[in-house]
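Let's practice the habit of predicting before peeking. Look at the sequence and jot down your guess about where helices and strands might fall. Then scroll down.
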Amino acid sequence: MSVFKAAAVQMRSGTDVARNAKAMEGFVREATAAGATYVQTPEMTGALMRDKESLKASLRADQQDLIYQTAQRLAKELGIHLHVGSTAIARPDGKVANRAFLFDPSGSLAATYDKIHMFDVDLDNGESWRESATYEPGTSSTVADLPFARLGFAVCYDVRFPQLFRAEALAGAEVLTVPAAFTRQTGEAHWHVLLRARAIENGAWVVAAAQGGLHEDGRETYGHSMIIDPWGRIVAEVDGDQPGVIVAEIDTAASAAARKKIPNLRNAREFAVPAAGPARPLRAAS
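Done guessing? Here is the structure:
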């Protein structure tokens, strides 16, 4: 059981990667000055670009990426765990990954995660998104051991797939992460309830750094970065869509206590779902 300070950085990333990297650095330094030893940035920290050709022109492989390089340098200089919520990365096979990075205090790469679930939706306000047209989805979850907590990874739209978080909780994750660039429409409707649900049903802390506001490429994101305790209480929140930093103390003992009170991870049972064909056994997660 450990106690540490976590920070969520809310950004309004534009189309200029260098400018976004500079903004990220300022917020990370602010978070560290406030005592945070784990700092998380939002999804697409490096840039939000709707134009595919501009996006492709900005892409670099992991170690050549400016956000990667800046985060690695800051983690080592400041002696923190720095979690880049995600940024667009050129894969060796010519495809694009929506990839998260976690750097440890030595500047070493401790973990990566590629967003699994693609945001392919048509909203009733006319917004239409097809992430799968640009990004190659990930195929595996990530759970990383930090000195003070076991961390489960996700990105944005993943939050609507509770089986991912349940699997990470069953693997021992006490802190679940949801860096995001939630649209304003879906954020107003679902952001708070989804994040609180993931915390409650898994008896885990949730740290969710978000993009917020009107971006250069025309999209509008919801903001409201949050840190939520395992009982579903919001302990820190950016009140709106303005860029900023929130910091909260996380005690992993609270996760153990919540799971002891409501032992649903232990109580899950197999069940059958009637179907046209033979019924097959299912479980909440495995």
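How did you do? The first strand starts at residue 3 and ends at 10.
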